[in-house]
Amino acid sequence: MQFYRSHVLVCGGTPCILKGCKAVRDALIDELKRRGLDEEIRVVETGCLGPCDLGPVIVVYPEGTLYERVQVGDVPRIVEEHLLKGRVIPSLTGEGRLAGVVGYEEPTYLASQERIVLRNCGIIDPSSIEEYIARDGYRALGKCLTEMEPLDVIEVVRQSGLVGRGGAAFPTGLKWGFTANAESEQKFIICNADEGEPGTFKDRLILEGDPHNILEAMAIAGYAVGASCGYVYIRGEYVLSIERINEAIEQAKVFGLLGEDIFGSGFSFDVQVVKGAGAYVCGEETALIESMEGGRGEPRIKPPYPGTHGFLGKPTVVNNVETLANIPPIMLNGAQWYRGFGTSKCPGTKVFTMIGDINSKGLIEVPMGITLRRVIYEIGGGIPGGRDFKMAQTGGTSGGCLPREMLDVPMDYFTLPEVGSALGSGALLIMDDSHCIVDIAESFMRFFVRESCGKCVPCREGTARLHDIIRKISQGNGTYEDLRLIRDLSHAMQGTSLCGLGQSAPVPIMTMLKYFKDEFEAHIKNRLCPTGTCRL
């Protein structure tokens, strides 16, 4: 085994790849070799480090110095000054880049986070099973198979208070219990990695940065409910995620951590990858199953539920990527340890993808119950250009839109619904006061018109009619009767649509009418767009 005095971690998440991280990595390797330092310093390509808007990003250990927006031309200076002489380069760390910029507040980007799901992302080489094992990887699976009965595993998950992180927030232990109690010779575990929510890329970066974590969690779930086969249903566009998870599957088989008689326990479990075709509605578990069976991605009528009648009609557990990523640490550290994070009603952490008008965009993991104010101004560094905060949409395109008055509302799965929003899958869109609410609403509904599968009338017709009405208002042709019609139509869709797409599509519009009604009325009464965005 070789020891190194320093490690240089190069973020290899998709955002950094798009900005040229591989060229930076190769330049680092070449420069270290040229200076005879390649035996002292190791360059490692890792998963996502988090600050996606600042890529390419590298971190030098053991100091933990983060360099941002690194270009190939910066590499000789980093090697010369930092890696050879031990002098940090402030101009590449962000010190001074934003100093004095109006509206910027120095972020405590990592200090304010609690990393459970992302504990290995940006730390290990995701293509190395040895590095995952060195970080306690597969210990939780070994503990479950050698020290615990299946029902004991389910009980720990239940006591932890973990709820589904895909948006539905259904108690994970309860879901596993349904499948465990179902009578069948064949059961399945499905990891839902069909991340179609605009603005959400957390699952992709978890799979890219820590694929073995998901495989270990699926095996634990399989043991708990009596399943021997697992599937990762993943978006076909997520090429790197697919490569990483397939590579991890093969490594786990070689190490005897997937396949027959794992840890000599008599338990066997295997995993396969299924590529999705890019349908937003396939994020819904029954539409996902329909797609896996070769059908058109459309939701099924429930009941029966997948827990008892799922893939191929067999009992099936469908869990989101982030949900599964919590399982190994919970099994290793216990339910009470997990309850030490977040709130008493909603324990644990939540991974968010911060996008929009915010200084530090990217991936963060924070305790449940944190406020929007802390996320935006403490971790995200505030609003660019000194502009005022106007709105935050939580939970993705179908999530509620919250105004400034809601900055101190705790963000968890049970508090946000009380103000008309939802935590959802973790997309967090921040907008400043330059945006028009009516224009944003029209954009959201245009998306839902395209993504409705068309199976049920309330969603198929409702999304189209809502879009038509809002577009009419944005063009200066709306009436007050249109506002009443929007409310009536939204309530009808929420009460009669077959699946979550139609039920939640009106949510952003309803919250906009609740908190930003004056902007709709300005378009109707004065034929005026307050921001000058709409062409009236």
Task: Describe what you observe in this structure.
With 536 residues, this protein is α/β, with parallel strands linked by helices. The chain folds into four domains: 6-93, Glutaredoxin; 129-338, Rossmann fold; 349-432, Ubiquitin-like (UB roll) (Roll); 437-525, NADH-ubiquinone oxidoreductase 51kDa subunit, iron-sulphur binding domain (de novo design (two linked rop proteins)). Helix content is 40%, strand content 13%. It is built from 22 helices and 13 strands. Strands 10-9-13-11-12 form a five-stranded mixed beta sheet. Strand 3 and strand 4 form a beta hairpin. Helix 7 runs antiparallel to helix 8 (172-181) and helix 9 runs parallel beside helix 11 (239-254). It is globular, with a radius of gyration of 24 Å. Residues 96-107 have low confidence and may be disordered.
The CATH homologous superfamily name of the largest domain equals NADH-ubiquinone oxidoreductase 51kDa subunit
Report the average pLDDT across residues.
91
Total number of β-strand segments?
13
Strand count, sense and barrel status of the largest sheet are: 5 strands, mixed
CATH architecture of the largest domain: 3-Layer(aba) Sandwich
Sheet-strand content, in percent, reads 5-15%
Radius of gyration: 24 Å
Counted up, domains total 4
